[in-house]
Amino acid sequence: xxxxxxxxxxxxxxxxxxxxxxxxxxxxxxxxxxxxxxxxxxxxxxxxxxxxxxxxxxxxxxxxxxxxxxxxxxxxxxxxxxxxxxxxxxxxxxxxxxxxxxxxxxxxxxxxxxxxxxxxxxxxxxxxxxxxxxxxxxxxxxxxxxxxxxxxxxxxxxxxxxxxxxxxxxxxxxxxxxxxxxxxxxxxxxxxxxxxxxxxxxxxxxxxxxxxxxxxxxxxxxxxxxxxxxxxxxxxxxxxxxxxxxxxxxxxxxxxxxxxxxxxxx
Length: 266
Hints:
One of its GO terms (biological process) is signal transduction. With about 270 residues, this protein is an all-alpha fold. Among the domains are: about 10-95, Death Domain, Fas; about 170-265, Death Domain, Fas, CATH 1.10.533.10. It has 15 helices and no strands.
């Protein structure tokens, strides 16, 4: 198939499963009957996704918003990439209508500049927090010269060092069924379990687990349990408590991350 959308990030073509969102797109009138028939005429998922994004070029801003809402429900890690793509589409359309200067010469919207600054500040703050509070490491401050360290300080350092070693060993333990159950019971994780799957490097199993849930008549929380079991089976050395806690924090599931750390690594 001839590639038409060179601007589409590869992540969208790789991660987005058209068959998981086609019904929602049709229900929200983002796709009409002709679009639906056209897209289903392709056999490969990447071809369907590529054609879908090509069709979105001619859709309204309201359709774009509905599309992004669907992405936020099931594919929030690529939602922003889709939003940027739609913004470029609208800028291109505006440029053609006004026959004005090139897109890269357009002045930035003051509100966009302010949002960008706030985002950069937030990201920098988040990086600082993650760097300083990562559960995968437990480091001591630089030691002073031995001859200048009082005996009580030495004992304190030795105690802290011993505690850190114990904590690190606990964080290195392989996740257990009990830990998986705690994650499964968190309603926020259940709602966004596909995001957790992506962060764990298990995106390819999302479609399989959804099909299993429907076939077996299971609740959505079962997908969380099956996901963690699949992760443990595929990456037994990486499937540790420390890694799970880190990923949960990165995805914003701090409540269950704190619970796991407090219960099994304290």
